[in-house]
Amino acid sequence: MYAGLSTMPLHSRLCWSLVTMLALGILATFPTHSKAYTLANLSRLPAHKKCGAFFPRRPLVDRDLSRSQVLSGGISAISGSFLVCLGASFLQIKPVIAADEGSGDKGSPTFVTCASSSGIFRFLYPETWTSAPKLLQTHQEEVTLKSKNVLGFSAGVAVDPVRIESIQQSGSPSEVGARIVALEGKKEGVSKVELLGSAQEGDFYTFDYEVESTRGRNRFLARAIVADKKLIVFTIQIPMDAYEANEATISRMLQSLQVNETNGK
């Protein structure tokens, strides 16, 4: 199904997922569900259904090749792009009381769990957050959320098939981070990109960088991993002037990401 992208470098997939949530995709067909949600009525869904509406089964469509040039040369990726809010492959949502205090996002929030329909990932997010759907799904699996209280504070997970067994095969964290910064610096309207940190935490790579552009100064924090030959990238974006007040919430969300082996299912 994904043979058309078999020559794309894996770093394309990671940078694109980390920064723009736009992507290189191919046409592929998945079974559609009988129930659908529109952008207009999604906001009226009960809380336990909101996250589930993020995982429709829709055709993948190629949208943007320019975001596709960042991990290491010679490593191929196969796969798709980012977000549709039609269909209903429901996720599990479970309330969890937050441990952190004074997050800035309306004090100490209550967190809920968002788990993928395939079971490959799950993470916590403040229950006051809402969906931020786009019109086209461009990854194999994807979800994106945004804060109601802090403009520009958002988070998303993207899952794409790859050919490698581990993210370490794409290069070191600093090498991958340097390529991300180099590509971002070439984007229209971007005046400055600075890599604030990169590290390996177990099987995960983490990245922390700032982008200054005509759209303002934003900070990006991400965790990436390859499991079952799938690249899973969890990215949080926030305006620089809101980062300090929301640092506890960001840390809680990033560290909550769990990835499960599904044996290729």
UniProtKB/TrEMBL annotation:
Gene3D superfamilies on file: Mog1/PsbP, alpha/beta/alpha sandwich
Q: InterPro entries this protein is in? A: Mog1/PsbP_a/b/a-sand (IPR016123), PsbP_C (IPR002683)
Which GO BP terms, alphabetically?
photosynthesis
Top-rank taxon, per record: Eukaryota
The record ties this protein, via Pfam families, to: PsbP
Question: Which segments constitute the PsbP C-terminal domain?
Answer: 116-259
Q: Which GO terms describe its cellular component?
A: extrinsic component of membrane; photosystem II
What are the recorded GO MF terms, alphabetically?
calcium ion binding
Q: What protein am I looking at? A: Photosystem II PsbP, oxygen evolving complex
- Name the species this protein comes from: Nannochloropsis gaditana
The taxonomic lineage of its organism, from the top, reads: Eukaryota, Sar, Stramenopiles, Ochrophyta, Eustigmatophyceae
